[in-house]
Write a structure and sequence with these properties.
Keywords: Transferase. The protein contains twelve helices and twelve strands. With 331 residues, the protein is of the alpha/beta class. About 2% of the residues have low confidence.
Length: 331
């Protein structure tokens, strides 16, 4: 079977959707499929189209329907699809959901946030991650210098990520706190670059590292004691998968996309956008070793969700579901 994956993120991009598309390509090839990743689709032959983004891939989906109405379509729903584009561009976004023979959601609560009529064809897929190369998880406390308790924020700097929330929270810490916030990510625009540079100049607890290569970002995790995931909307962030696989405790905003990965009972949530609550939670991880160890145990327990084997099995289930539903269509 020949599968085409379409993503808006071009070759060489470090955007999460590009990484997802290329990882899915590898996993599907391992499962025995022939797979290509494209950024434009003009009706070329394939046996199945897998579209990342309901809204951004809408035109390609329309073309696929026109040229290949009897072939299966899978649509992977992103955070912006679920939490923005459904409302801003309902015609295109909902049409893509309707056209799909199978929908992929990247966290367990996606079904609560899409129309009920689509839930029967929704499959949850947990994105996988490999532990950092050469990483051996320490027993008990992570190694930390006497002078620094490292908190990392990893992801492109953009409004949806609320990327400087941890930096703002670090301004509220007690004078004796050893916390330093290290932020890695490409700015979405010039304004975000300016904001990051200004924050670094005025906040001695904050440093912006710019866009890092994958291996460098993983090593930042190894050096850190906590990861902050501060997004206001997420479809299921792969950085949480990476943190869990590395045994790195996570402090996360209490949005559906984070709760759908970490679970309702996870102890490290703060109210989204609440700087004071985030500061208190950051300081608690530094000062209360029992709490830090609780978070570490919880991410350790979740790590098994985020293996390549599980992700490959979910992709194969999505293909099977799409084929089954497509074969039942009346043309």
């Amino acid at each position: 079977m020949y599968i085409t994956i379409i993503t808006p993120a071009g070759q060489g991009s470090k955007a999460g959707n590009r990484a997802t598309a290329e990882r899915w390509q590898r996993l599907l090839v391992q499962a025995g499929y022939c797979v290509s990743v494209v950024t434009e689709y003009k009706g070329e032959h394939c046996d199945l189209l897998l579209a990342l983004h309901a809204w951004r891939s809408h035109e390609a989906i329309r073309i696929f329907e026109k040229f290949w109405p009897d072939k299966p379509l899978i649509v992977a729903l992103t955070g912006t699809d679920i939490y923005r584009h459904q409302q801003e561009y309902p015609e295109q976004t909902l049409h893509s959901m309707q056209a799909a023979d199978a929908l992929i959601g990247l966290h367990a609560n996606v079904g609560d946030d899409i129309p009920e009529r689509f839930r029967e064809k929704l499959l949850t897929l947990y994105q996988s991650a490999e532990p950092p190369a050469g990483y051996r998880k320490p027993p008990g406390n992570a190694e930390t210098s006497a002078d620094t308790f490292e908190v990392c924020v990893i992801g492109h700097l953009r409004d949806e990520k609320d990327s400087l929330r941890a930096a703002f929270a670090s301004r509220l810490l007690s004078p004796g706190s050893r916390i330093r916030v290290s932020c890695a990510g490409k700015p979405h625009n010039r304004n975000w670059q300016t904001l990051a540079e200004q924050e670094m100049q005025s906040n001695p607890r904050f440093r912006w590292l710019g866009e890092l290569e994958k291996a460098e970002a993983l090593q930042l995790m190894v050096r850190s004691q906590v990861l902050v995931m501060s997004s206001v909307m997420e479809g299921g962030a792969n950085v949480i998968s990476e943190a869990c696989r590395a045994g790195l405790p996570v402090i996360a905003s209490d949005i559906p996309g984070n709760i759908g990965l970490l679970g309702e009972d996870y102890a490290g949530y703060y109210p989204v956008g609440d700087t004071h609550s985030l500061a208190a939670l950051m300081e608690r991880t530094e000062q209360d070793n029992g709490f830090l160890q609780l978070l570490r145990r919880q991410v350790d327990q979740l790590a098994g969700l985020f293996t390549p084997e599980n992700e490959q099995a979910s992709l194969e289930q999505a293909v099977s579901l799409a084929l089954k539903r497509c074969s039942g269509k009346a043309f």
